[in-house]
Amino acid sequence: MIDGGAGVGKKRQYNGLDVVKVCLAVLVASRHMIQIFYPAESKWRLVIGAWFSNLAVPVFFITAGFFLFSKTERQSPGEGRVSVLKYCKRIVKLYLLWSVIYLPIDYLNWVNGGRQEGAAAILNYLQSFFFCSTTVQLWYLPALAVAVILVWAAYCKGLKVWQILAVGGILFAVGCISDNWYFNQRLPMGLQRLLGLYFRYFMTVRNGVFYGVFFVALGLWFAKNKREIPLLCSLAGTAVFVALMLWEVRRCSNTNMVFASAPAAFCLFAAASSIRWKDRQIYIRLRVVSEWVYLSHVYFFHLYAITAGWNPLPATKKGITVSILVPMLLFAWCMACLSERKTFCWLKKMI
Fold first, then answer.
1. Are the C-beta atoms of residues 25 and 87 closer than 8 Å to each other?
2. What is the pLDDT of residues 52-93, one digit of tens each?
3. Dihedral class, residue 253 (left if φ above 0, else alpha if ψ from -120 to 50, else beta)
4. Would residue 9 count as lying in a domain?
5. Of 98, 163, 274, 319, which is most buried, counting CB atoms within 10 Å of its CB?
6. 117 CB neighbour count, 10 Å cutoff
7. Whole-structure pTM value
8. 326: pLDDT strictly greater than 60
9. Residue 4: inside a domain, yes or no?
10. CA neighbours within 13 Å on the CB side: how many for 134?
C-alpha cells in the first residue's frame, strides 16, 4: 500500500483511491482482530475475514505499482532504474524499522507460545523474517519490494506488459492452489510432497513471487494505459466479482488467496482511480491514516488484551471492536495530523 511516487511534483491526486485505501486498511485490521477475538462460529469470520478483506492486498499491490511506474514512464531508463531501486530500498527500510518496533510483541508471542529453545527460536525467527514476516501484516512490505524488482526487471528485459501479466497470472494461480487445502489436497501425491517441501523452507506463497507479481504488473498496465474504464462499468464489474468472491470463499473455504479477487481488485482500482473529487487536504491525510492503520494495528490487539480487565465495555464482539478500532483510528489520525507539522515531519519516514 506504499505509494510509489505519489505526491511527487504537481500532479493529479487520486482521491477515490485514498478513500478506498483507508477502508481496505481498516478491513485488514478487522480481519486480524476477528481471527483472534471472535468465536469460531461468528459469521464475520466469513464476511470480513475471508471475503471483503481479501480485496485489500491486491488493490494495495496495484496501487503501489501504478504510482511507481507512472513515475518511471516519464523518466529515462537510467532514471527509472534509480527510482525503482530507491523505492525498494525505502520499502526494505520500512520492513526493518517495523520489525524492530514489533520486537516486544514477538517476545511476548515467544513467551506465551511455549518458549522454543534458544537456537530453535532464533532460527524460526530468521526464517519467518526472510520468507514470511514475524508479524502478521508486515509480509506485504518485502513482498512488494520483490514484486516490483521482478516486474521492473522483466519489463527492462523487453517483455511486453501482457507477457508479464501472463506469467504473473500463472504464478498467482499456483499460489491460490497451493495456499488452499480445497485445491492442494486434490493434487497428485508427488506434487503434494513437493508442496510440503516448499512450505517447510519458504513457509508461504503469500509473497512477492506468487502474490505480488501479477498485481504489481496490473499497476504497470494501468500506468501505461491512458484510457480510463468508464466508472459505471468498473462499479458493475466490482459488484459482480465481489459476489463471485463470496461464492468462492464459501465453496472452497479460501481465507488468504482468492481467484476472484483478481478481477474484483482490477475493477475496484479502475473505479476508484477514475473518481474525480475536488482536491482537499482530508484525502492526503486519509492516505497517511491508511498507512498507519495497516502498519500499527497489531499493537492495539495487545493494548486491548492488557486493559481488558478494567475496560468498561463488555467483552462482546461489539465491545471488542469498539475497544480496538476506535483507539487505532484515533492514533492513526493523530499521527497523520502531527506529521504535517514541521516538528514531527520525521513521522513521515515511518510509513
1. no
2. 999 999 999 999 999 999 999 999 989 999 999 999 999 999
3. left
4. no
5. 98
6. 8
7. 0.95
8. yes
9. no
10. 25
Question: CA–CA separation, 165 vs 73, rounded Å?
Answer: 18
DSSP 49: I
What is the structure's pLDDT at 5? Answer: 46
| Chain-centroid distance, C-alpha 264 | 15
Q: For the chain, where are the alpha helices, taking DSSP H only?
A: 15-37, 44, 56-72, 77-101, 103-112, 118-131, 140-156, 161-179, 181-184, 189-202, 213-224, 231-252, 261-274, 281-307, 317-339
- Tell me which residue range forms the domain holding 225: 15-350
CA 147 to chain centre: 13
Domain count, the chain: 1
Domain presence at residue 238: yes
42: three-class secondary structure by DSSP = coil
CA 270/CA 51 separation, integer angstroms: 20
At residue 257, the 3 state secondary structure works out as: coil
Give dist(CA 242, CA 261) in Å, integer. Answer: 7
Number of Cα atoms under 13 Å in the Cβ half of residue 18: 20
Rounded to 5 degrees, what are φ and ψ at 278? -60, 135
DSSP state string for 151-198:
HHHHHHTT--HHHHHHHHHHHHHHHHHHH-HHHHTTS-HHHHHHHHHH
Q: In angstroms, rounded to a whole number, what is the distance separating the alpha carbons of residues 129 and 139? A: 9
Place of cell 482500482: 269
